[in-house]
Amino acid sequence: MKLKDIGEFGFIDRVAPFGMTRPAQVVKGIGDDCAVVLFDGLNYLLVTTDLLVERVHFRMEWTEADFLGAKALAIQLSDIAACGGRPLDAFVSLAIPEHIEVEWLDEFYRGMTDYARAFQVNVLGGDTTGSKTDLIVNVAVTGQVPMDQVLFRHTARPGDVLILTGPIGDSAAGCDILLSSPDLPERISQRLIHAHVAPRAHVKAGRLLASSGACTAAIDVSDGLSSDLGHICEDSKVGAIVNEDSLPRSEALLDAAAAMGKDPLHWMVNGGEDYVLLAAIRPERVDAVKTVMEEQGCTIHVIGALVEEPGILLRRTDGGEMPLRPGGWDHFRREP
Ligand code: ADP
Ligand code: MG
């Protein structure tokens, strides 16, 4: 059997049952944005880790070293944000091929540590090895969240309102632009490429959602809305209705789609690497949460609601409906 037969998530489900030997301290193991473990009696400890592999996640010619360093950390802080937490400490492991210059690594660390400083995150360790061909970057981050505020994927309820904390699709469009170099005005391609190479973590939004007491579940949109909403729905045993018209999108995305003859909806729902938060909020509290978040400089867009009936339905602009199946990123089931 090959990994493409079961997919990335089939593989994770397969290995998940074997990991737990000391369950007493564990609040949530495999299956959420962070592992959640008992900590100091007031807060939970959050732990998250991700790999970035050259030619799989990035290309050297697409990104400056400092942007890649910042992104490697930002995508981890995004997982901490998805659990409602505050990031604490980072561990950075690198497998470095011969062709990488020390000056490049200096810039990588400058980008990462500038980003870390903005969130008061320490870099406390890691590991360094050689690599035969590609650069491999692993960042692990710890965080903390008050025990009564932690946000999971499996706790959403029918009737909850679905929100996003920012626009979706820009990063996927930026990636397509890097791949195909279409003839686009500079300001459009720059904005979309920037979204791809320099995503920001919505840590403040995550903390505000968590401390509102009105948020029942959250995830960060890393694989694409259809897949990440699929995780909330499957894990919470609910369905969802999403309104196409309500999906937040940038002008640059629409301009690029028109110029490239692409459907912007595909970038928005299947694209991934948006690193905005997707959250479920009790319906009677949405207006109050929106007011507080906007006062604090965060945005929130209502995109639909959760329902009892399983499955995700997309209400199209033309009034039609279509099922929204997970079409986002899976490392072993990539569309060509
Ligand atoms: P995210 O996109 O939020 O980083 P992933 O989709 O990468 O989450 O992972 C989903 C869950 O599976 C997480 O709990 C993660 O820690 C776990 N996981 C992923 N790969 C492995 C692995 N090789 N072994 C054990 N757990 C894994
Ligand atoms: Mg995540």
Mean pLDDT: 95
Name the helicity range. 25-40%
Please write the string of helix (H) and strand (E) elements.
HEEEHEHEEEHHHEHEHHEHEEE
Strand content: 25-35%
| End-to-end CA span | 21 Å
Identify the strand order in the major beta sheet. 8-10-7-11-9-12-13
User: The biggest beta sheet, please?
Assistant: 7 strands, mixed
DSSP E strands, number: 13
- Hetero ligands: adenosine-5'-diphosphate, magnesium ion
The unreliable regions are none
- Please tell me how large the radius of gyration is: 20 Å
Number of helices: 10
Shape: globular
Determine the structural class based on helices, strands and strand pairing. Answer: alpha+beta
Would you kindly provide a written description of the structure presented here, covering whatever features stand out?
The mean pLDDT is 95. This protein has helices at residues 3-15, 65-82, 102-118, 170-180, 186-197, 203-212, 225-236, 251-260, 264-270, 286-295, and strands at residues 26-28, 35-38, 43-53, 86-97, 122-131, 136-146, 161-164, 215-220, 239-243, 277-281, 301-307, 311-315, 321-323. The protein is α+β, with helices and mostly antiparallel strands. It has a 7-stranded mixed beta sheet, with helices on both faces. The longest helix is centred in the N-terminal third of the chain and has 18 residues, at 65-82. 36% of the residues lie in helices and 26% in strands. It is globular. Adenosine-5'-diphosphate binds at residues 12, 15, 30-33, 50, 79, 222.
